[in-house]
Design a protein that fits this description.
Blueprint: E1 4-18, E2 25-27, H1 54-62, E3 67-70, E4 91-93, E5 98-100, H2 106-116, E6 119-124, H3 131-142, H4 147-154, E7 165-168, H5 183-200, E8 205-209, H6 214-224, E9 230-238, H7 250-254, H8 259-273, E10 281-290, H9 319-334, E11 339-344, E12 354-357, E13 360-363, H10 365-376, E14 380-387, E15 390-394, E16 400-404, E17 406-412, E18 419-425, E19 432-437, E20 445-452, E21 471-478, E22 483-488, E23 492-498
Parallel strand pairs: 1-19, 2-3, 2-11, 3-6, 6-7, 7-8, 8-9, 9-10, 10-11
Antiparallel strand pairs: 1-14, 4-5, 12-13, 14-17, 15-16, 17-18, 18-23, 19-22, 20-21, 20-23
Helix pairs in contact: 3-4, 3-5, 5-6, 9-10
This protein binds alpha-L-arabinofuranose (AHR).
Residues 29, 72-74, 170-171, 286, 291-292, 294 line the site of alpha-L-arabinofuranose.
Length: 499
């Protein structure tokens, strides 16, 4: 194969925008082992005095998790939050059709977020719940007067939690959701809920469940747009089969690497057409390459819960996940004018970045991508132009699709001027060099290159091979900062830091 080269021209004096660090957020749902046996496991020898897994908290801190969305997901659409504070009784969870232990509720969630150093983001029940239920929840968390504040105090929390981020509903447009709504019903519910929630605390930021659909958004925004701050959208691009088999082919997965960006652009256009661009931002508050395995979710027959265990097979999550995740985050950076939050779904177990077992955690390849972006990229997105070869792959539908060989975004720390250039080689087996031009008028300098690669596209981490995919770091001396090249191995994610 001929040696491939891409060219990245940087215009250091042109800043496209500033990213909101909240794009590196995560999500937790009461599903399978995300909460119980995941982040919360009072019986574990690794739990702290609150029942939280110390190793999970440490891992979430290391990637500077800025925000955690909770409690669902489909789970929230029948979640009786009032039963999850004070005296607790287990109950039947109609979303996943299991018994909910109910020992992890609002108080525990807020405490967890404080331990991690993340903002709590509460998604309310807009399925079976209504405006009063939602505004009572705001009162419980944020007020110091009234019945709900008194209940919080009685539960041992004298000071308000001051939860700033709230959303109305989860995927309420979808037939799968309990208490699904038509666009007209939705618009009315959003208006009345937003009104009451903001009367309880006008400083909260409010999102609504959304989708790239003009009618769905038009109705809600015409009714309530001025009370809102965010539209929430979701995306999963690879579904496990009902038998619990996860998609394997690297090429047909990577063919979808820029579909999240198309979704962002659609919603951006919808916001623009409704006069809300610049007013409302996108919270991509559930996203992952992999959809969760929950077979028979839509049926009314028996659920084979054992099949959900296939979410725990670490070999399902490999370099396709890492490369896709990096492209997703690059897309958020490119659209930082409108994407202000994103929540990887989920944080722990299922298809998440951190897997727990009884004696520790496994950090999946996606975790290391978060580590690269949160610890080594910067706030300003600097203007750049990339010329890259592309390659043809076959999609899952048997069509041919052209995929860019390289994806790149340039970021800068406004305080120090340091640069973080994210370079993603999407090709499964061909390296590429990237010629980088435009920095300084010349001169030498030092750079640090950190790469997540793995021995092959199928590389994964597991209990017995925790570091098969890890960050490899090396220092480089660059002779001419105005024009130099970097080698990007096949299926890799690199962040190059220049002082
Ligand atoms: O598969 C995960 C589920 O997917 C979440 O509960 C829901 O929000 C989404 O549809």
């Amino acid at each position: 194969m001929t040696k491939q080269q891409a060219v990245l021209d940087i215009l250091p004096d042109h800043v496209d925008g500033s990213r909101d660090f909240m794009i590196f957020g995560h999500f937790l749902e009461h599903f399978h082992r995300q909460i119980y046996g995941g982040v919360y496991d009072p019986g574990s020898h690794l739990a702290d005095e609150n029942g939280f897994r110390r190793d999970v908290i440490e891992a979430l801190r290391k990637i500077r998790t800025p925000v955690i969305r909770w409690p669902g997901g489909c789970f929230v659409s029948a979640y009786p939050w009032k039963k999850g504070v004070g005296r607790r009784v287990p109950y039947y969870d109609k979303a996943w059709r299991v018994e909910e232990p109910n020992t992890f509720g609002t108080d525990e969630f807020v405490k967890l977020c404080r331990e991690v150093g993340a903002e709590p983001f509460i998604c309310t029940n807009a399925g079976t719940g209504g405006p009063e239920d939602m505004s009572d929840w705001v009162e419980y968390c944020n007020l110091d007067i009234g019945e709900w504040a008194a209940r919080r105090r009685a539960n041992g929390h004298g000071e308000p939690f001051n939860v700033r981020y709230w959303s109305i509903g989860n995927e309420n447009y979808g037939a799968w959701e309990m208490g699904a709504k038509t666009a007209d019903e939705w618009a009315r519910l959003v208006l009345e809920s937003a009104k009451m929630m903001k009367r309880a605390d006008h400083s909260i930021e409010l999102a609504i469940a959304s989708i790239p659909d003009l009618e769905w958004n038009a109705k809600a925004l015409r009714e309530a747009g001025d009370l809102l701050d965010w539209v929430s959208i979701h995306g999963y691009w690879s579904r496990a089969s009902d038998e619990g088999i996860f998609e394997k082919g690297y090429d047909n997965i990577i063919a979808r690497a820029f579909e999240p960006e198309e979704r962002i652009v659609s919603v951006k256009h919808i916001l623009g057409s409704l006069g809300y661009l610049g007013e409302l931002r996108i919270a991509f508050d559930e996203w992952n390459l992999r959809g969760w395995c929950h077979p028979n979710f839509m049926s009314f027959g028996p659920v084979d819960h054992a099949l959900m265990d296939c979410n725990d097979i670490n070999s399902n999550y490999n370099m396709a996940d890492a490369v896709f995740t990096a492209c997703f985050l690059n897309s958020c950076l490119r659209h930082c004018d409108v994407v202000g939050m994103a929540n990887f779904s989920p944080a722990v177990n299922t298809v998440g970045a951190i897997f727990t077992h009884k004696d520790g955690v496994v950090l999946r390849p996606t975790y290391h991508v978060f580590d690269l972006f949160t610890n080594h990229s910067f706030e300003e997105v600097v203007h750049s132009a990339l010329r890259t070869p592309s390659f043809e792959v076959e999609t899952i539908d048997g069509e041919s699709r052209s995929v860019p060989h390289l994806d790149a975004v340039v970021t800068r720390d406004p305080a120090s001027g340091d640069l973080g250039i994210t370079l993603v080689n999407l090709h499964g087996n061909a390296n590429i060099t990237c010629r980088i031009r435009g920095l300084d008028a010349g001169g030498s300098g030092n750079a640090t290159m950190r790469t997540v690669n793995g021995a092959s596209v199928d590389a994964f981490n597991d209990v017995d091979q925790p570091d098969a995919v890890a960050i490899e770091e090396r220092s480089l001396a660059i002779e001419n900062r105005a024009d130099f090249t970097i080698d990007c191995p096949a299926h890799s994610v690199t962040v190059l830091n220049l002082e």
